[in-house]
Design a protein that fits this description.
This protein is about 35% helix and about 15% strand. The protein has about 280 residues and is α/β, with parallel strands linked by helices. Helix 1 crosses helix 7 and helix 5 crosses helix 6.
């Protein structure tokens, strides 16, 4: 039985148990209305030792695509794309706890041309530094965008203004050093925890747009393939901001299934910079 038949069977067999495994309904935790919940379990701890050095991946020329943003970036939280984008959705990926998964995402983008926004944590430097050569040409072409997810993944509502700014600027320096770009104004508050105070503290150092999400594929940690596919089917929709993670292997094994789903729905992935003009 090939992998797709196996996964289809697994999805059917697990249908009765999905209500216990799937992500909670939006509003189950303290996140803005209209955003699907993000698991509150902290991301896996960064590796204590440098991972084995892998062979440099083959770097191919990214697809050239002319994009003219139609909207100004909001000064304040972004919960979804404008409905006027039609069949477009924003594919966003957080964290980077696994070097293998980060590299797999880079190779997936090279292979397919899908446009992705990565919300990077500097605490996972091993992952991002290793993938930087593969990502560089796609960042230069605009196919891949780098945004901030803070350096150490704190809950912003539980720390002071100066700590928020210090953590954001530590990540800012890491992103500039690693990728040669300025991630402002885009950042994602860890766990979705934000309020007017944290927004103002971040805006004071140039991070004026906290990016939330419409739905998550639920993979901040390792989950069954059937659960991830169910969540993807539910949440990958026109004008949505989809939240994924570069932490666990499940999504890597399902990339081709996700492409089939996106094609079946007639959708097109975009970065935030494809849609919004920034200063």
């Amino acid at each position: 039985m090939d992998r797709r038949m196996f996964l289809s069977a697994a999805l059917a067999a697990s249908a009765l148990s999905l209500s216990a495994c799937a992500s909670p309904e939006p509003g189950a935790e303290r996140v803005p209305t209209g955003s699907a919940p993000k698991p509150t379990t902290p991301p896996p701890a960064p590796p204590t030792a440098a991972p084995p050095v892998a062979e440099d991946p083959e770097i191919t020329e990214p697809p050239v695509r002319e994009v003219t943003p139609q909207f100004d970036a909001p000064h304040g939280p972004l919960n979804s794309l404008p409905l006027e984008v039609g069949n477009q959705f924003a594919w966003t990926v957080d964290d980077g706890a696994s070097p293998d998964v980060v590299m797999a995402y880079a190779q997936f983008a090279q292979r397919t041309g899908h446009r992705i926004t990565f919300f990077v944590n500097g605490m996972y430097a091993d992952s991002w530094v290793a993938a930087a050569p593969a990502l560089a040409p796609m960042i230069a072409s605009g196919q891949v965008q780098i945004a901030s997810h803070t350096y150490s993944h704190p809950s912003l509502t539980s720390i002071g203004d100066a700590q928020i700014q210090d953590d954001l600027m530590a990540n800012h320096a890491f992103i500039e050093q690693t990728f040669g770009v300025d991630a402002r104004p885009w950042y994602r508050p860890p766990y979705g925890n934000r309020d007017a105070r944290t927004d103002a503290a971040a805006a004071a150092v140039g991070y004026t747009t906290p990016v939330m999400w419409n739905g998550s594929i639920g993979d901040s940690g390792l989950i069954p393939p059937a659960v991830l596919l169910q969540e993807a089917e539910r949440w990958i929709q026109p004008a949505s901001i989809i939240l994924g993670h570069a932490n666990a292997q499940t999504v890597v094994d399902l990339f081709d299934h996700l492409i089939d789903m996106i094609n079946r729905k007639g959708l097109e992935s975009v970065t935030l910079n494809d849609v919004f003009r920034t200063a």
